[in-house]
Amino acid sequence: MVSAPHEAMHRIFQDHPDLFSGVSKVLGVDFAPPTSVTLMPTDLTEASPLERRVDTLLRLETEDDEPLLLAIEAQGKKDPDKPASWAYYASYLLAKYRLQPILLVVCQDHATAKWAEQPVRFGPPQWPLLTLTPLVAGPHNMPVIKDPAEVRKDLALATLSAITHAKSPEIGPILKAVTTVLRDEPDAVKNPVIEFIARGLSKLPAAATWRTLVAVDLSFYKSFIFEEIREEAQTQGRVEGRVEGRVEGRVEGLAEDILEVFEVRGIDVPEAVRERITGCDDLDILRQWHRRAITAPTAEDVFTA
Prior knowledge:
The chain has 305 residues and is of the alpha/beta class. It contains 13 helices and seven strands.
């Protein structure tokens, strides 16, 4: 089953195809900026039982009138079978479209990224027939963008930075910088970024930080996207079977969200307040306290209108 981080790592290029220009500059490769982009079919299956699909495929029209095919693969772990598949993709795309292909592999951990960027030679050692050299974007080479001014310069690259550094100790400041910038952005810009990063972080520890930041910094708890993210997080791993179990999971998760809002805002929570919040089993009251926690000057103020 395809994971949320996997989808985020390549689908962001579908929404922001010009992101490749920024990524290629970071990787030290000079490509002419695209003048137009076409989303191509990703099915590379031939008339045989074997099905092959690239994650994202874009046709880039360039200023020098030499279109390129950009194949983007999200890679979550080392896979010794992948280089052969990637070589097949490149050969198939060249044969089918008669355009030069580029392979960009996006990763979230150093070991996988370092493995993916190693050239792979096919054929006998005394006469290699083919050498595969992917471009690789990952935590080892993507910029750590913690300055809101830098985020504003390239929001798409900052979003990819957050996704590729999802497991990094630097992820907290990166996420904080992004929410600082999103405060001034319209919903049409803000909402997709929030969703991309939420999917990229998925079940990682940083996902809880992201949910809290979008609630506190953006008052985003009213948005259907944040509600969906929060519901997924609250019920994930807690929901098994009966309605009673779902309610208990949502109560527990919402109480944790309230305490996390205070933690992010730097507000001290007395033990009596903590016990009252975690001991409450009324979802409506907890939702009310959660809304108040975003602006309350002290922890005790969540209990008063």
